[in-house]
Amino acid sequence: MKSLPYLIISIVVCVFIPFNLVAKTLWSDYSVTFLRGNNYEIGDSNRYVGTIEYASGTTWGDNFMFIDRLVSDNGDNEIYGEFSPRFKISSVDNDFFKNIYVATTIEMENFSASSGFSNSFTNYLVGVGTDLKIPHFNYFQLNFYRRNNELDKANYQMTLAWGIPLGSLYYDGFLDYATSTDIAKATLNFTSQLKYDIAPIIGLTSKLYVGIEYVYWQNKFGIDGVDEKNINLLIKYHF
Q: 24: which DSSP letter?
């Protein structure tokens, strides 16, 4: 039933918004990123990407959201965003994992081609998540979702997200694996960033990273045999 995920998300929001309004923010982070890549699949291979990100941890759980603005050299434009709050339902803390969450995500996209073609969708994901306790990692999240896809039948997704310092470098990223549907193949999207903080060199108090983002996307958008292998140059500023 396609309306079920909408109902679940509505209930979760109605239950937790009152707690959110009085919740204590434990930490928060804003950042802007600029990327340039030349090996994109589907559409023009050359694109600029600007990204705004926000992450926070509160007494009710945590939240991550971002908005991408993609501009292709051929004039195509795209806006893609995700809003991913996780609501704590159990404060477990042992040697393997910490906390259990109701994990939710809303995916939104609007694409406009220079030819006049346009497309948009909104997908809703609901599931469970936790924080794995792995030595040396700042964080390592594991989430399982049921995906309610606006333009396709529902399927399932597993998402990993991590961040780890490597000496003077920092390595973070995510891995999404989504199961197949009647019209789409199973997909695997491995995206990670390796970067160096140059802020101390130029006298900034906030982090300013330079580095690369590497994307390996198997069966991109569920299209059989379309595998993206793309390196982007990266500048990222936290404030």
A: P
Helix (H, G, I), strand (E, B) or coil at 13: helix
DSSP 3-state assignment of 97? strand
Residue 145, beta-bridge partner list: 127, 157
Percentage of the chain lying above the pLDDT 70 cut: 91
- pLDDT tens digits for range 34-45: 999 999 999 999
The Cα–Cα gap between 175 and 106 comes to 17
Residue written as token pair 């040697």: 95
Question: Span 149-178, mean pLDDT?
Answer: 97
Round to whole Å and give the CA distance between 55 and 193: 17
Q: How confident is the model at residue 23 (pLDDT cuts 50, 70, 90)?
A: confident
User: Helix or strand or coil: residue 17?
Assistant: helix
Place of tokens 């004039």: 75
Are the CB atoms for 190 and 227 separated by under 8 Å? no
Q: How confident is the model at residue 28 (pLDDT cuts 50, 70, 90)?
A: very high
Burial (0-12, 13-18, 19+ Cβ within 10 Å), 1 = exposed
Integer Cα distance of 104 and 106 in angstroms: 7
- Residue ranges of domains in the chain, CATH in brackets: 3-238 (2.40.230.20)
